[in-house]
Amino acid sequence: MKNTILGGGGGGYWPMIQRGINPLECWYPLGPAQADTYVGGIALAANRHYAISFAVPCDCNLDGVMLYVTAAVATSKARMGIYATGGFDNAYPTSLLLDCGEVNTNAVGVQTITGLTLPLYMGVLYAGTFISSHTPAITLRNYMYQGWAAVNTLGNSLRPMCYATQAYGALPATFSVVGTTFMTSGSYDYPTIFLRFT
């Protein structure tokens, strides 16, 4: 995956810029940004299942997931996973593909899970998801939604980020659509995680 640009987003592609010089050192932030503002931190809501859609430019394997804790909370944990979606005509997450596991968010710094095996395929829309037991802060990006991808041919919202209320624990087999909220228009900060591919 070295020297590639990945796409992330519901109904369109946004650049996900390579980090590092070795393929096994390249972590890709999920989600679009009006600039490469993936620094800083934003507090997570407890028991909220966040999802950010993404696509890959070629067939590959998901090898790892990572988040960067910028403000820790004692005893807190986070869980990350990958879901299928309804595709480019319906970006809602659907069925769980891989529960990547749990990391501690009780200390500032990088938290990684590696050694994963999940084949991903070009032309398919996926969702990277994460949920927290408490309210630590993690890396943020800033997104300017201008309405240029407001709806698709089915009339569904194609904003690339959504969340749903979900009790912390093992990720559910099906992403909850009850109370699911697509983030609204305008400029806002949102939390993100990073993926690694081989």
Gist?
With 198 residues, the chain is an all-beta fold. It contains no helices and 16 strands.
| Alpha carbon gap, first and last residue | 6 Å
Domains (count)? 1
CATH class (first level) name: Mainly Beta
**Shape label:** globular
* Alpha-beta classification: mainly beta
Architecture (CATH level 2) name: Sandwich
| Beta-strand residue fraction | over 45%
How would a crystallographer describe the biggest sheet?
6 strands, antiparallel
Characterization of this structure:
- The chain has 198 residues and is an all-beta fold.
- The protein has a single domain, classed as Jelly Rolls, CATH 2.60.120.
- The chain is built from no helices and 16 strands.
- Strands 3, 4, 6, 9, 11 and 16 form a 6-stranded antiparallel sheet that branches.
- The N and C termini lie close together (6 Å).
List the SSEs and their pairings.
Blueprint: E1 6-7, E2 15-16, E3 28-29, E4 42-43, E5 48-54, E6 60-71, E7 77-85, E8 93-104, E9 109-120, E10 126-132, E11 137-138, E12 140-145, E13 161-165, E14 181-182, E15 186-191, E16 194-197
Antiparallel strand pairs: 1-2, 3-16, 4-11, 5-10, 5-13, 6-9, 6-11, 6-16, 7-8, 7-10, 12-15, 13-14
